[in-house]
Design goal:
This protein is of the alpha+beta class. 32% of the residues lie in helices and 23% in strands. Helix 3 packs across helix 4 and helix 7 packs across helix 8. The protein is built from 10 helices and 14 strands. 53% of the residues are buried. Bound molecules: acetyl coenzyme *A.
Length: 325
C-alpha cells in the first residue's frame, strides 16, 4: 500500500551568522579536534535578533513554493514541525501561513528531532484522505535560544535553520509515492533529553528558563537501535528491502550516529546524505534542509527510493520511505 503524492518543491533558509568550533572553544572547554572527531560538526548557523522559527520557516516555505511553481493561495494546509515555536500560541504554522500569504488551516507538531517525519507523514495522510491536495510542510528551529551556552556537552551540537517541502496529491499511476510511515515513542525515557517550558509543573523542573538537558551517551545508544528498528518497520510497510533504498536522508545529529545506523542497515555510507558538518543538529529542520541540498546537488532523481529517518527528544523516532516523483 502507498499514498500517491509527490514532493513538488523543496527549499531551506539559514540565519546569516556562522559559529565555528574555534569560536566555541573560546566559550567552553572544548576544541575543534574534539568536536569534529566526536560529531563531525565544524560550524553551525545562529539566529539573529530578527530571526524566529516563523520567519526562517516562511523564507524556506517561499523557496519551496518557488521550486514547485505553486502560488501560496493554492496551499490547502500548513504544518510546521518545531520544538522552538515563536510562543505558546499562536502556532508557528499560523504565523508562517500569514507571512507567506496563504489562506488555509495551519497547525504545529512537536516531536523534537522527529518532528519533520511526523509532519510529513501527517501531510501524506491528509492527501491520502483527499482532504487536502497541496500541503506545505515546514521544519524550523531556533535551538540556540534554548541551548545552555555553558554546557560543553550540548552547546557544540545544535544550530538554527529551516527547511520546507510542498507535498502534492498525484494520480494513482503517476509519479511519486509515500509509503506508510513508522513512528515510535518512549515517554518513559524522556528524562534522557528534555527542555522544560513555562507550563511545566514546578516540581518537574526549572520553568522560566528552558534549556536543553541531555545524557549524550545514553541518547546515542538508544538512537542507533531505535532508528534501525524504525527503518526495518518502514521497509516492511513498503514491502521493500534495504538494498532497494537509493538514498538515506537522515536526521543530522552526529556523523557517528549516521555511520553506525548505515552499518546496522548494511548500507554503504555513500548512500547517506550528510550536511551536519556545516549546520550541526537543527532538529525538525535537519531533514528538509538536507533534502533541499541533496536535490540541488542532483543526488535525487525521479523513481529513487528515498528514506527519511530520525530520532529525538520524547524520546521519539520514525522512518518513512518515499518514491521520488
Ligand atoms: N569538548 C571536550 N570534551 C568534552 C566535550 C566537549 N564539547 N563534551 C564532553 N566532553 C568530555 C566529557 O566530559 C568526557 O570526559 P571524561 O571522560 O573526562 O568524563 C568525555 O569528553 C567523553 O564524553 P562523552 O559524553 O562520553 O562523549 P561522547 O563520545 O558520547 O560524545 C556526544 C558526546 C557528542 C554528545 C554524543 O554522546 C552524542 O552525539 N549523543 C547523541 C546526541 C543526539 O543525537 N541527540 C539527539 C537529538 S537532540 C533533540 O532531539 C533535540
Amino acid at each position: 500500500m502507498s499514498f500517491s503524492c509527490r514532493v513538488a518543491g523543496y527549499g531551506h533558509s539559514l540565519p546569516e551568522r556562522i559559529l565555528t568550533n574555534e569560536e566555541l572553544s573560546e566559550l567552553v572547554d572544548t576544541s575543534d579536534d574534539w568536536i569534529v572527531e566526536r560529531t563531525g560538526i565544524r560550524s553551525r548557523h545562529i539566529a539573529g535578533d530578527a530571526d524566529s522559527s516563523s520567519s526562517l520557516g516562511a523564507a524556506a516555505a517561499m523557496n519551496a513554493l518557488r521550486v514547485a511553481n505553486i502560488d501560496p493561495s493554492e496551499i490547502d494546509l500548513v504544518i510546521a514541525a518545531t520544538c522552538t515555536p515563536d510562543g505558546m500560541f499562536p502556532s508557528t504554522a499560523s504565523r508562517i501561513q500569514h507571512q507567506i500569504g496563504a489562506e488555509c488551516g495551519a497547525f504545529d507538531i512537536n516531536a523534537a528531532c522527529n518532528g519533520f517525519i511526523t509532519a510529513f507523514s501527517s501531510a501524506a495522510q491528509f492527501i491520502h484522505a483527499r482532504t487536502a491536495n497541496k500541503v506545505l510542510v515546514v521544519g524550523t528551529e531556533v535551538l540556540s535560544r534554548i541551548v545552555d551556552w555553558s554546557d560543553r556537552g550540548t552547546c557544540i551540537l545544535f544550530g538554527d535553520g529551516a527547511g520546507a517541502v510542498v507535498l502534492e496529491a498525484g494520480s494513482d499511476d503517476g509519479p511519486g509515492k509515500v509509503f506508510p510511515p513508522f513512528l515510535g515513542s518512549d515517554g518513559g525515557a524522556g528524562n534522557l533529553l528534555y527542555a522544560w517550558g513555562p507550563c511545566a509543573s514546578p516540581s518537574e523542573g526549572i520553568t522560566e528558563d528552558a534549556k536543553i538537558i541531555m545524557d549524550g551517551p545514553a541518547v546515542f545508544k538508544y538512537a542507533v537501535g531505535a532508528m534501525a528498528d524504525a527503518v526495518e518497520s518502514a521497509l516492511k510497510n513498503a514491502d521493500k528491502s534495504p538494498s532497494d533504498i537509493t538514498i538515506c536522508v537522515p536526521h543530522q545529529a552526529n556523523e557517528r550516529i549516521i555511520r553506525a545506523l548505515m552499518e546496522r542497515l548494511g548500507l554503504p555510507m555513500e548512500k547517506a546524505f550528510t550536511n551536519v558538518q556545516s549546520y550541526g543538529n537543527t532538529s525538525s529542520a535537519s531533514i528538509p534542509i538536507a533534502l533541499s541540498e541533496a536535490n540541488s546537488d542532483g543526488r535525487i532523481k525521479p523513481g529513487d527510493l528515498v528514506l527519511f529517518v530520525a530520532f529525538g527528544g520524547g524520546l521519539n523516532w520514525g522512518a518513512v520511505l518515499t518514491e521520488w516523483g
